[in-house]
Amino acid sequence: MCTPRERTCPPTATEHVTITGHTRLYAVLGRPVAHSASPGLYNTWFAHFGVDARYGALDVPPDRADRVPDALRTLGLAGANLTVPLKEAVIPHLDALAPSAQRAGAVNVIRREQGRLVGHNTDGSGLRSHLCGLGFDETRPALVLGAGGAGRAAVGALLDAGLPVVYLLNRTTARARAVAEQLGSRVRPGPLTPEAFAAVACEVGLVVQAVSGPGRVCIDALDPARLSERSVLWSDLNYWDPTPPHHARLAELGHRFDDGWGMLVGQAIGAFELFTGLQLSRLEAHALLPGRTP
Predict the structure, then answer these.
(1) Mean pLDDT, rounded, for 219-236
(2) Which CATH superfamily is domain 124-259 in?
(3) Which residue in 65, 118, 123, 216 is deepest, having the highest Cβ count within 10 Å?
């Protein structure tokens, strides 16, 4: 039986699917991907709608991003999702970018369109839909930690939602500044340090934590006590992390914690529609995943 943190359990609805020469194949590409819950999501939805398709996970080294488009063409994959570290690195090698990917500066979906491989981004729309479902104070500034693919998409989504200011802290300040230059003056970039966090934490009503891997030490060094005494929603996009930073401390301080599962499902809903043309509501998508909650 899956526990709330065991997101990779195989769905029983797809245990006996037959794969033929007509079956469309999709995959999530990146490193690491062994933890990915995406195959379970898509294969459950494919089975529910009777779509002749299967979805897997393929480990791709970071230095092979330039070969991803040729691999998709050669292997005949109908489409793919991208995760770290490919979301930005693959961009120069695609045939075109949809407006969503241009704005985000990152690609998390590749779709075949009239013989071309086109990059899309559903991270931003997925996050925005999920956060709207949770409810948060959109009149207060937000803070995004990390300026990678997911962080960049989060900033764009929050600006589109009308937030007055989005602070963006990143280990490499120049990277955060580049996002601000692209997206406008409402983005306030800075270094991902305890001092920079403390300087803005008291203003924000939402924190989006989009740092993973080696950057985890920078998140561990932050002090949640610097947040406002008013309720803050802390959304950690690393849904696979069994011990997300500051989870217990945030609860002690009276803040809300979101484990990122809803954002994963939200971006997958958008990608599923791009792949199949079928629309899923947020509630329906979650209802088809037993044992999981938004």
Answers:
(1) 97
(2) NAD(P)-binding Rossmann-like Domain (3.40.50.720)
(3) 123
- Known catalytic membership, residue 87: yes
The DSSP bridge partners found for residue 79 are: 26, 111
**CATH no., domain 12-121+263-287:** 3.40.50.10860
d(CA 190, CA 207): 15
Asked if the model's pLDDT at residue 36 lies above 50, the reply is yes
Distance of CA 52 to the CA centre of its chain: 26
Alpha-carbon distances, residue 135 vs 34, 221, 273 (angstroms)? 32, 27, 25
Residue 1, burial from CB neighbour count under 10 angstroms (0-12, 13-18, 19+) = exposed
Say what the pTM is.
0.91
The mean per-residue pLDDT over the stretch 139-154 comes to: 96
Question: In the prediction, which pLDDT does 17 show?
Answer: 67
What is the mean pLDDT of the segment spanning 4-9? 42
State how far the alpha carbon of 58 is from the alpha carbons of 35, 183, 233, 260, 269, in Å. 11, 32, 33, 22, 20
Q: What one-letter code names the amino acid at 171?
A: R
3-state secondary structure of 251: helix
Beta strands of 65-192 (E only): which ranges?
79-82, 96-97, 109-113, 116-120, 142-145, 166-170, 187-191
Catalytic residue selected from 41, 43, 55, 87? 87
How much is the pLDDT for 18?
83
For tokens 């500034």, what's the residue?
141
Say if residue 260's pLDDT is above 50.
yes
Q: For CA atoms 69, 71, 77, 81, give the dihedral sign.
A: negative
Instruction: Identify any residues that bridge with 26 across adjacent strands, giving them in sequence order.
Output: 55, 79
Domain boundaries, the chain: 12-121+263-287, 124-259
Tell me the residue ranges of DSSP E strands in the chain. Answer: 24-30, 53-59, 79-82, 96-97, 109-113, 116-120, 142-145, 166-170, 187-191, 206-209, 233-236, 256-258
